[in-house]
């Protein structure tokens, strides 16, 4: 997002740069187009605007904490960007980036404060860059954090003219005494699942191989099981849970949360379990959306293999006392997050057991 540096050597040097494939004027235009989107994400702590060398955030908010702890996360979107490029639709991929960033923060209880982005492309097309940033900014609004800065880098010869990759980093804050994690989890806790919006942005190397490469399906193919085209399904934006998860943490005694990303449900949930606790997940408590069965059936993939790769329709899991589960479900569902009890914590060895069959 930071605008490219202007050469001090005059127009000849700029022309030489353009001849090498880097268009400074296009970068400037991209910054101009995105300014309005970024403005919508500003929090009261943001100082200045975009276009400088660094983003500034008033840290006095952090000083109000008794024992502030900063949390940080960095991630990218992965090969889902290939779907956006193939469909020439770039204004939703920002939700995928933000989902990977801020929802990794909230599982420890942190409030996301700001995000910075990095877009590498083969050629700066201002409208395309602005569309990408619009998606990031829209998702920042949903997550309640500021888009504080970033960089757009033009890499001719390394990336094709229509190729790009997107990554970012985020910072949040929480009280030290309120950090969620394995040491809080107890036998008798229930696991509440929060529905995903689909594949989110993990496992796309497998999905693309199975459906596009091996099966030879086109992105504009109408798929009856999905009720829309394959491309529309694969580009469905990642759900951003940040404010909903923070509302749950504020209202109830959440012990731990797990963001279900690459590696599937069991592997990610095990990351927040202590050695003496096992969580038993009942597959019969939900039916994964059709896209998951489609990938499994077309690719002849085993159930354990698909579960170790894709989220199977669950984007986030919270562990909390059983007597608070019904109220927690009401809160989440009132906020538009479809949720259900999917399992329970029992004495065990720090693993996750998947039992039963999907309904």
From TrEMBL:
The keyword Nucleotide-binding applies. It comes from the Bacteria. It catalyses: 2-formamido-N(1)-(5-O-phospho-beta-D-ribosyl)acetamidine + ATP = 5-amino-1-(5-phospho-beta-D-ribosyl)imidazole + ADP + phosphate + H(+). Pathway: Purine metabolism; IMP biosynthesis via de novo pathway; 5-amino-1-(5-phospho-D-ribosyl)imidazole from N(2)-formyl-N(1)-(5-phospho-D-ribosyl)glycinamide: step 2/2. Its main location: cytoplasm. It holds the Pfam family AIRS. It is an enzyme of class 6 (ligase). GO terms for molecular function: ATP binding; phosphoribosylamine-glycine ligase activity; phosphoribosylformylglycinamidine cyclo-ligase activity. The keyword Membrane does not apply. GO terms for cellular component: cytosol. Its EC number is 6.3.3.1. Residues 69-173 form the PurM-like N-terminal domain. One of its GO terms (biological process) is 'de novo' IMP biosynthetic process. It is found in: Cytoplasm. Residues 186-352 form the PurM-like C-terminal domain. Keywords: ATP-binding, Cytoplasm, Ligase, Nucleotide-binding, Purine biosynthesis. Belongs to the AIR synthase family. HAMAP family: AIRS (MF_00741). This is Phosphoribosylformylglycinamidine cyclo-ligase. It comes from Microlunatus elymi. The lineage of its organism: Bacteria, Bacillati, Actinomycetota, Actinomycetes, Propionibacteriales.
């Amino acid at each position: 997002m930071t605008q490219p540096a202007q050469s001090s050597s005059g127009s000849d040097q700029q022309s030489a740069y353009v001849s090498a494939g880097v268009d400074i004027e296009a970068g400037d235009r991209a910054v101009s187009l995105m300014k309005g989107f970024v403005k919508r994400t500003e929090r009261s702590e943001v100082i200045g605007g975009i276009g400088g060398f660094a983003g500034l955030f008033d840290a006095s908010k952090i000083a109000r904490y008794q024992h502030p702890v900063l949390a940080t996360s960095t991630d990218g979107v992965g090969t889902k960007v290939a779907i956006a490029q193939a469909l020439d639709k770039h204004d939703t991929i920002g939700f995928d980036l933000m989902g990977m960033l801020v929802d990794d923060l909230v599982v420890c209880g942190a409030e996301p404060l700001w995000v910075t982005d990095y877009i590498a492309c083969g050629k700066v097309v201002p409208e395309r860059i602005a569309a990408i940033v619009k998606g990031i900014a829209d998702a920042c609004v949903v997550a309640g954090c500021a888009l504080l800065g970033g960089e757009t880098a033009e890499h001719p010869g390394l990336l094709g003219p229509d190729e790009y990759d997107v990554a970012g980093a985020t910072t949040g804050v929480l009280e030290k005494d309120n950090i969620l994690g394995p040491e809080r989890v107890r036998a008798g806790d229930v696991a509440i699942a929060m529905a995903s919006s689909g594949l989110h942005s993990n496992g796309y190397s497998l999905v693309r191989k199975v459906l596009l490469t091996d099966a030879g399906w086109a992105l504009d193919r109408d798929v009856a099981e999905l009720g829309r085209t394959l491309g529309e399904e694969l580009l469905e934006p990642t759900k951003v849970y940040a404010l909903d998860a923070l509302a749950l943490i504020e209202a109830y005694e959440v012990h731990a949360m797990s963001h279900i990303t690459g590696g599937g449900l069991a592997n990610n949930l095990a990351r927040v379990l202590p050695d003496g606790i096992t969580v038993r997940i009942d597959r019969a408590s939900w039916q994964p959306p059709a896209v998951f069965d489609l990938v499994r059936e077309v690719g002849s993939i085993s159930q354990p293999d698909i579960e170790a790769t894709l989220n199977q329709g669950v984007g986030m899991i919270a562990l909390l006392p059983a007597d608070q589960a019904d109220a927690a479900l009401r809160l989440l569902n009132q906020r538009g997050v479809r949720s259900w009890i999917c399992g329970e914590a029992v004495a065990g060895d720090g693993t996750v057991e998947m039992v039963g069959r999907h309904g």
